[in-house]
């Protein structure tokens, strides 16, 4: 049973580590420290290996839990009921927790409220669209974090960040905000603007 408990501890650790790059932006949002959002983005290339390791460890823990027990002939007291931490129920809870952690990048966007603001543009010639090339984004949580920060600025018509393309396309009213303020908002997340192109 001790072996099974060690597997569980390592399984939880690898599951959390596998999604740490996507959990950090959400934690940063709640803590109000958006600059630390990209702290663990360096873990992204290791994510597939950490997921594989988590699955392997949990499979070993389930094997240890479900394998037939060796029967020993003795006239001892009947086996005590295993502690909760050694039960199948606990292993099930840990497995469910690991799945929730591993899937975090796919549902992290629910933690970012959509902006409730009214956009009034007096003159269409004041509208401008700029593509900001951004380094450090690794998942949809990163995209949402960038969009969330940019949308705090006045005059933003739309912000569409993409971690796959490594960019954010921002439409804004030039009379209310400018490229420098948008770049500053993006850089404040911890991700960095590397280039700008006017569309």
Task: Please characterize this protein's 3D structure.
45% of the residues lie in helices and 15% in strands. It is α+β, with helices and mostly antiparallel strands. It folds into 2 domains: 2-110; 119-198, Alpha-Beta Plaits. The chain has a 4-stranded antiparallel beta sheet. The mean pLDDT is 79.
Q: Any key phrases for this structure?
A:
single chain; alpha+beta; Alpha-Beta Plaits; 4-stranded antiparallel beta sheet; 6 helices
Proportion in β-strands: 15-25%
Helix-strand sequence:
HHHHEHEEHE
**Strand line-up of the largest beta sheet:** 2-3-1-4
> What does the largest sheet look like?
4 strands, antiparallel
Q: How confident is the prediction overall: mean pLDDT?
A: 79
Number of domains: 2
Topology, number of strands: 4
In brief:
This protein has 199 residues and is α+β, with helices and mostly antiparallel strands. The chain has 6 helices and 4 strands; from the N terminus they run ααααβαββαβ. It has 2 domains: 2-110; 119-198, 2-Layer Sandwich (Alpha-Beta Plaits).
């Amino acid at each position: 049973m001790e072996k099974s408990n060690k597997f569980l501890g390592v399984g939880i650790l690898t599951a959390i580590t596998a999604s740490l790059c996507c959990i950090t932006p959400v934690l940063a949002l709640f803590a109000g420290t958006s600059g630390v959002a990209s702290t663990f983005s360096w873990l992204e290339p290791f994510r597939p290996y950490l997921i594989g390791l988590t699955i392997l460890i949990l499979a070993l823990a389930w094997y240890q839990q479900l394998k037939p027990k060796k029967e020993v002939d003795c006239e001892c007291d009947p086996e005590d009921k295993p502690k909760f931490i050694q039960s199948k129920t606990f292993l099930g809870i840990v497995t469910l927790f690991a799945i929730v952690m591993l899937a975090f990048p796919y549902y992290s966007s629910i933690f970012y409220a959509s902006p409730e603001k009214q956009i009034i543009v007096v003159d269409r010639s004041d509208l401008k669209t700029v593509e900001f090339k951004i380094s450090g984004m690794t998942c949809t949580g990163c995209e949402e974090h960038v969009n969330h920060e940019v949308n705090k600025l006045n005059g933003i018509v739309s912000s569409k960040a993409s971690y796959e393309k490594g960019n954010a396309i921002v439409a804004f009213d030039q009379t209310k905000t400018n490229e420098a303020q948008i770049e500053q908002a993006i850089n404040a997340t911890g991700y960095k603007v590397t280039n700008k192109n006017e569309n």
